[in-house]
Design brief:
The protein contains 26 helices and 31 strands. Strands 7, 8, 9, 10, 11, 12 and 13 form a seven-stranded mixed β-sheet that branches. Strands 6-5-14-16 form a four-stranded antiparallel β-sheet. Strands 29-28-31-30 form a four-stranded mixed β-sheet, covered by helices on one side. Strand 18 and strand 19 form a beta hairpin. It is an alpha/beta fold. The protein has six domains: 9-142 and 476-527, Rossmann fold (3-Layer(aba) Sandwich), CATH 3.40.50.620; 157-170 and 361-462, no CATH class; 181-351, Isoleucyl-tRNA Synthetase, domain 2 (Alpha-Beta Complex), CATH 3.90.740; 546-722, Orthogonal Bundle (Isoleucyl-tRNA Synthetase, Domain 1); 726-810, hypothetical protein PF0899 fold (2-Layer Sandwich), CATH 3.30.2320; 813-875, Helix Hairpins (Orthogonal Bundle), CATH 1.10.287. 43% of the residues lie in helices and 17% in strands. Helix 9 crosses helix 15.
Length: 876
């Protein structure tokens, strides 16, 4: 085969990916081998590949390819998440462009549009992952809205309801006015924002007296149903039992007393709006207050807002300030930093709202998951520091609001047959629900047309928390062959931002439904940031196009660039220069391969230098293999790559190939050549998980291989005993070679000119690498001596002293002139520094660090002059 002079990733990647897919290397079926299983964190079906996906999936591919090489039955299950809020928003936006209002469509009509959108765009990100080289088992691709996956979700809902763990409750929830749905507490991001504290004056009924309250939300006065004071607050004794009049709407409300009020905050008087604040709702329940909801679903005011009806809450906030001021109710405003809850998905400001919702009781469900991570260590988090975050979430868990006011998602399997609060049944099918409804209502005349299914959909996380089980159909068929073989899975790779949303919930579900952990290890990657430490985002314009990076640097180059600085749990400061480094590494390996392939091979005697070079590299390889194994065991993937990188770039390319390279236009011996090929193949094996395309390409060029002999399914190198002394002896020898090369460079001694070489061997170094030193230093021989060699250039390695006689090696007259010129310059420089230091005004007036700098210059110059004079003496 003709080997191209340059490595061109664009010509290689699709070729080998298609080859791997064609030969079914990614596919797994249960067999007698040890399974190694990863389930992909399913990206949103709306998603396209970004830098976080690139990092996360590169790490997963490294782990799965390594397991495959180790002879395990590697199974990486891909798939996507239906992402209720995000996908519904995309579909609604598309309908709007077509002049269609979602509210004008039936549920079935809307879902048809949603499925059309999903079929058109839903597979984009998985196709992009193929460009990165991800070796997922594409035959197993799952989608959280697949029929079998949805059936599993409904089955779990019914089961948990029947166990008394799911209930319907009228509670204060987080309302997203943009998505027009509730959110769980964990989907609310609290941000500090600069706002105003408004001091408002309320009249006391039947008098000219007033009281003042402080609020950050003046628009909510339309929902006020009480003013609350602390019974211990002497300032407001005169208000007890009286009533206040709400500004603008003129509603008369009671003044109540409760120790809940903080006497130190604001004015000590609290406006109570039970429909729009959880703490106010608790007060309202305690004091039997009226509940007035003043908002529409989209965050605009309803008819309780009087002349502000239909206007957005933030528009009203600005306008009502003016009205309150004009009517004499606005006492003052102050700047105030407030914690504002925002939607993780839409970024809209959350509105606390009372609503009938479905909840899952978490108090008991969470216990096995706490024990598994924090007590027994059955599930290990890497880095370990995230255990504290996990503990905080799990020990402060609240009931999970699992219902969403959306159409896209699994519809809640609750069926209503009457108007009463409890006139509903829960069942997997409408047929089952009808039988249950007849029993519960004692009305056997009911028909299916009398049943109304709950219109809400389940939270997306309620499907993805089953992912490690449902992808193997372990919910519907808990004893099937696949779930029993592949579960629990091995490693989960994900971001720390969904440690609670997804990771913790999967652990909870695993113990509830299989009484077993869902995975053994959780590797939490850092966030990908730019060089300025900013989180990458579309709005900042600092997130590079993932596919363009692959086009420019090759998938292998991008993989290396991402991994080189992505230590577990620490943020990755991404720089395209890292991808260039990865591309450069690929070129280095390609050129090394071409060098070996270009040698003429002959049946000649093997030089001693080559023999010892092979022994040394094999020892070095084994040492590195152990280090790599240790890094993998601790999920230090970046460190494992760096060890591999150094082994190949430094030890293989820079040292080993130089040690065995034949003389110019001379052949290499057959034994060394074959050993070099074997060493190269082992290097390709350990590099393959990181750089799959380049390594497979070189592997296939080395010799013709059958599909069974492809690198992707070859065998990981075996661990063997190795000679540690050989490694340390070479490290010493390499310093000697570097010393010879430095002198050659400094003194312009051409490499073609062989030199004499002597050593005083104070370190008792063995002669193991003498042949290598002779070859790489172009030394005639090594003379072991006990006395210094007069008139020789010298250098030291530890206490060993090495001598290169100057006679015939350098032009002594030219060297004397060069040293003399340098001495004269340095002495002149010293005089100028000493003149400055002898100036008392300079020393007294200059900053301390400036004076210290000049004194250092003086000391450095004196030392250099001494060295130069000694060198001149040795030459004369």
């Amino acid at each position: 085969m003709q080997i191209p002079s340059k490595y061109d990733a664009s010509q290689v990647e699709s070729k080998w990916y298609d080859y791997w897919v064609k030969h079914n290397y990614f596919h797994s079926e249960p067999d007698e081998r040890e399974p190694y299983t990863i389930v992909i964190p399913p990206p949103n079906v709306t998603g396209i590949l970004h830098m976080g996906h690139m990092l996360n999936n590169t790490i997963q591919d490294v782990l799965i390819r390594r397991a495959r090489l180790q002879g395990k039955n590697a199974c990486w299950v891909p798939g996507t998440d239906h992402a209720s809020i995000a996908t519904e928003a995309k579909v609604v936006a598309k309908l709007k462009e077509q002049g269609i209002d979602k509210n004008d469509l039936s549920r079935d009509e809307f879902l048809k549009h949603a499925w059309d959108w999903t079929h058109e765009y839903g597979g984009v990100i998985l196709e992009q992952l193929k460009k990165l080289g991800c070796s997922c088992d594409w035959d197993r691709t799952k989608f959280t809205m697949d029929d079998d996956m949805s059936e599993a979700v409904i089955k779990v809902f019914v089961d948990l309801f029947n166990k008394g763990l799911i209930y319907r409750g009228y509670r204060m929830v987080n309302w997203d006015p943009e998505a027009q749905t509730t959110l769980s507490d964990e989907e609310v991001i609290h941000e500090e924002r600069q706002g105003l504290l408004y001091y408002l004056s309320y009249k006391i009924e039947g008098s000219n007296d007033t009281l003042t309250i402080a609020t950050t939300r003046p628009e909510t006065i339309f929902g006020d149903t009480a003013i609350c004071i602390n019974p211990n607050d002497e300032r407001f004794k005169q208000l007890k039992g009286k009533k206040a009049i709400v500004p603008i709407c003129n509603r008369v409300i009671p003044i109540i007393e409760d120790e809940y009020v903080d006497m130190e905050f604001g004015t000590g008087c609290l406006k109570v709006t039970p429909a729009h604040d959880e703490n106010d709702k608790n007060l309202g329940d305690k004091h039997n207050l009226e509940v007035i909801d003043i908002f529409n679903d989209n965050g605009s005011l309803n008819s309780f807002g009087l002349h502000y009806e239909g206007k957005d809450r933030f528009v009203v906030r600005k306008e009502i300030q003016k009205e309150l001021q004009e009517k004499g109710h606005l006492v003052k405003t102050e700047n105030y930093i407030n914690k504002v809850g925002t939607s993780e998905r839409t970024k809209a400001v959350i509105e606390p709202r009372l609503s009938d919702q479905w909840f899952l009781k978490m108090e008991d469900l969470v216990k096995p998951a706490i024990k598994a991570v924090l007590e027994d260590g059955d599930v290990k988090l890497f880095p370990k520091k995230f255990e504290n975050t996990y503990r905080h979430w799990m020990e402060n868990i609240r009931d999970w609001n699992i219902s969403r006011q959306l159409l896209w998602g699994q519809q809640i399997p609750a069926y209503y047959y009457g108007d009463g609060k409890d006139d509903f049944v829960v069942a997997e099918t409408k047929e089952e629900s009808l039988q249950l409804a007849k029993q519960k209502s004692n009305n056997h005349d009911l028909t299916s047309s009398d049943l109304r299914q709950d219109t809400d959909a389940l939270d997306t996380w309620f499907s993805s928390w089953l992912w490690p089980m449902s992808v193997f159909d372990g919910i519907r068929f808990p004893e099937n062959e696949e779930i029993n073989y592949y579960y629990p899975t091995n490693d989960l790779v994900t971001g720390p931002d969904i440690l609670f949303f997804w990771v913790a919930r999967m652990i909870i579900a695993g113990y509830e439904y299989r009484d077993e952990k869902p995975f053994q290890n959780v590797y939490l990657t850092g966030l990908v940031r730019d060089k300025q430490r900013r989180k990458m985002s579309k709005s900042l314009g600092n997130s590079p196009d993932a596919l363009k990076l692959i086009e420019e640097f090759g998938a292998d180059g991008v993989r290396v660039g991402l991994l080189l600085s992505s230590a577990a749990g620490n943020d990755l400061l991404f720089d395209e220069a890292l991808c260039q480094q990865g591309k450069g590494f690929a070129n280095k390996i390609w050129n090394a391969f071409r060098l070996i392939e270009g040698w003429e091979v002959a049946d000649i005697e093997q030089p001693e230098s080559s023999k010892i070079a092979i022994e040394w590299f094999e020892a070095k390889f084994q040492e590195t293999l152990l280090t790599i194994e240790d890094h993998f065991s601790k999920y230090r993937i970046s460190d494992a790559l760096m060890e591999t990188y150094k082994l190949i770039w430094n030890d293989f390319c820079s040292w080993f190939l130089e040690m065995i390279k034949p003389e110019y236009q001379k052949p290499i011996d057959k034994i060394t050549y074959q050993e070099a090929i074997t060493i190269l193949e082992n290097n390709l094996k350990v590099l393959h998980p990181f750089m799959p395309f380049l390594t497979e390409d070189i592997w296939q060029y080395i010799s013709e291989r059958t599909p069974e002999e492809a690198l992707i399914v070859s065998k990981w190198p075996e661990f063997k005993k190795f000679d540690k002394d050989l490694i340390s002896e070479f490290d010493f020898a390499s310093e000697v070679i570097s010393g010879i090369r430095n002198i050659r460079k400094e003194k312009n001694i051409a490499f073609k000119d062989a030199i004499q070489f002597s050593v005083i061997n104070n370190e008792n170094v063995t002669k193991t690498f003498d042949d290598v030193i002779i070859k790489l230093g172009n030394v005639e021989s090594i003379d072991y001596t006990s006395e210094a060699v007069e008139g020789a250039l010298t250098f030291r390695v530890k206490s060993n002293e090495y001598f290169i006689p100057m006679a015939g090696a350098i032009d002594i007259d030219a060297e004397i002139k060069k040293l003399t010129d340098e001495l004269n310059y340095t002495e002149g420089f010293l005089k100028s520094v000493q003149k400055k230091l002898s100036n008392e005004r300079f020393v007294a007036g200059a900053p301390e660090q400036v004076v210290a700098s000049e004194k250092k210059k003086e000391a450095d110059a004196l030392a250099k002059i001494e060295t130069l004079k000694a060198s001149l003496i040795s030459l004369k």
